[in-house]
Amino acid sequence: MLPNELFGISNAWENRLSIVSEARPICGEGFAPKTVVFEPDRPLSTDGGGRVAPLAIAYETYGALNAARTNAILLCHALTGDQYAAGVNPVTGKPGWWEAMVGPGKPFDTDRYFLICSNVVGGCMGTTGPSTINPTTGKPYGLDFPVVTIRDMVRAQAMLIDHFGIETLFCVAGGSMGGMQVLQWAASYPERVFSAMPIATAAKHSAQNIAFHEVGRQAVMADPDWRLGRYQEQGVRPEKGLAVARMSAHITYLSEAALQRKFGRKLQDRSAPTFSFDADFQVENYLRYQGLAFVERFDANSYLFVTRACDYFDLAADYGGSLAMAFKDTKTRFCVVSFTSDWLYPTSDSRAIVHALNAGGASVSFVEIESDKGHDAFLLHEPMFIATTRGFLDSAAAARGLAAHGNSR
Question: What pTM value is reported for the model?
Fold first, then answer.
């Protein structure tokens, strides 16, 4: 089924959709990412009592590791991101998700730092997940894949960092679900994290956010083509359900002001309402496009697993209910960033993190950035965010002893 057959969608998006369609095969199929494979004698044991073996971790790197191995930065991607933070994504053909921030002369300066970004466990861009072949059955794992947590994702990343022979990361940075990974890194491996940037995130998933994720999961599982998670074996995909899940989620990444500014009540390719259920409004057409584009690059079962990982995240619960205890006596330097129009992970969530860091005796700075772009502001060109990141990294680099262009003492 062609993407624009799933929903009615106007000609305004057809050329863009045809470009997306050419990006097939879906997600991690049919391309060869950089991958490290940990054999069965080095399994990933999960919080839920599961075991992933063998474990493949797909990753990308940018810049060069210095001789002292002190300039490495781990970038942690958000919910449906991947390892392609910069450059051209080989599946979508589009720029990397943090192109605004990663590259020569940018805040995450590839002339100065060695950047690592890996696809999370449970993902679908080359790291082992539900679409991977289960060596026991010879079929895709599907729902037989163990449910993973943010901590499981970080454990796998630590295995990758060990593979590179890096003892301490100069910085761990990421937004949204990536920010959760940053916090988990700082709590689980404080001696391995010199500095940390949790951005537009929270130390636990709220009831509202769990609710939004549940709507998305139910949309996927209600699609007849989901087939109890065995759709790959049967040659189908739950495209309609996954598209609706994405449409619902995408609204939470925006702000009312941004939607009003971009779309308002403008009609799509028509001068009057059609008095039908076609996409009369531009905002309807936009959301349909977002849903249809998403099904061409992401696996439905992976969506279930990564949303569940976010829902289970509650860092304080692992420390007797005290978030401050997660960071007690840490030597890691922190910069916590929020955006004024982010209602998915509002500034109050970031302030709770800052208060806990202060109570734990951490070195922390906090910046709330004025923006009307909503949660996704951290992925966009925001001058104040760019300046904040550059300033924090420059200060941390000076404390770390990193010279201006990658040579360190």
Answer: 0.92
